[in-house]
Structures are given as C-alpha cells and as structure tokens.
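Figure 3 (text version): structure tokens given as input.
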C-alpha cells in the first residue's frame, strides 16, 4: 500500500500540473513562511523553501509522501519573488521586459524514509512592452501572486516571446522530474 500523496501548496497551477498526471493526491497548504534571502543563490533558495514547505506538512502527516515546491525569477543577479503590491509588479515587469531572465523551480519529495530535492532552471524572454501594456496587465491582478509578476499559463502568455527549457518549470512544477519520481515509487504504474 502506497502512502497517500500530499501537495504542500495552495498554488492552483501546481494543483493543475500534478493533476494532469492522473495521480491521486490531497492538497494541504504548508504553514512554512517563505523568505527570499538575497545572500542565497536562487538554486539554494528554491530547494530550501521547497524542503521547508514539505517538512512543515510532514510534521502533521508523517506517513504520507509530501511534495513541496517553490518558484522564483532572477534577473541580472536580483531575485524577483511575488510582488508586494501593484507598484512593485510594474517595477518588476519594467525591469525584465524585452530581456532574458531565469525561472528557478525547486521540488522536495519526502516520505517513506526518503528525501529527494531537485531544482530546474528555464530561461524566459518577455517581449518589449509599453508602459500602457504593463499598466493594463497589472490591472488584471494576475501578476500580483506570481514570481516575477507574470503568469506564462494565463494572460501573461501574451507577454512571453520565448521559453528555453521546461515549460512546466516556468509555471511552477517540473513535471518530467515529478513524473519520474512518482513512477519509480509506483504511483503511476
């Protein structure tokens, strides 16, 4: 008997991505508080925060397999998390429009005596945007809870010129790795 799978996230995007695999899981929001410590590398941050989210849920559900994940955007050495307000969203989009930036997603899978950590990096280029386009997009409120202030799977897709790497990593869950891990554990076979 496999331990039940829990997604330690409130992200509807991660829920949809994991659900697309056809695996049964429960969503339990993690009480873990995210921090974007600028002294840490983006790779370390997404791995540590993914693990923190998973560990916080595993304390209540020790006999389950817990999946935690975290995504952030980096541009020219600066980490761009979720904007605090519309003004910060405008500033982020103004900074990255017309340029390449990196999207980092970390995943932690813990339970049954094992702990796997993984991260993946994809590069994204937004097209050159006018101030009016940025203002309109921020007015949709879509960017307000997204790392880097845009959503590839939403209205923000119209802002993206090119993606190099894994599409699902940019949305928030590297599905090829997650699939492989769940397959190996017998969740999909």
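Below: residues designed for each position.
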């Amino acid at each position: 008997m496999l331990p039940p799978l829990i997604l330690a996230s409130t992200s509807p995007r991660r829920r949809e991505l994991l659900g697309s695999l056809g695996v049964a899981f429960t969503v339990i929001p993690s009480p873990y508080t995210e921090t974007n410590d600028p002294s840490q590398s983006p790779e370390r941050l997404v791995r540590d925060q993914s693990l923190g989210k998973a560990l916080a849920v595993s304390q209540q559900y020790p006999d389950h397999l817990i999946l935690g994940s975290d995504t952030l955007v980096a541009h020219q050495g600066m980490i761009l998390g979720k904007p605090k307000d519309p003004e910060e969203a405008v500033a982020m989009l103004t900074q990255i429009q017309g340029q390449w930036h990196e999207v980092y997603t970390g995943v932690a899978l813990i339970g049954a005596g094992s702990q796997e950590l993984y991260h993946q990096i994809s590069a994204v280029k937004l097209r050159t945007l006018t101030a009016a386009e940025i203002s309109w997009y921020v007015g949709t409120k879509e960017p307000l809870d997204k790392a880097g202030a845009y959503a590839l799977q939403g209205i923000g897709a119209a802002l993206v010129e090119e993606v190099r790497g894994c599409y699902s990593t940019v949305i928030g869950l590297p599905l090829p790795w997650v699939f492989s891990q769940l397959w190996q554990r017998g969740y999909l076979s």
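The radius of gyration is 17 Å.
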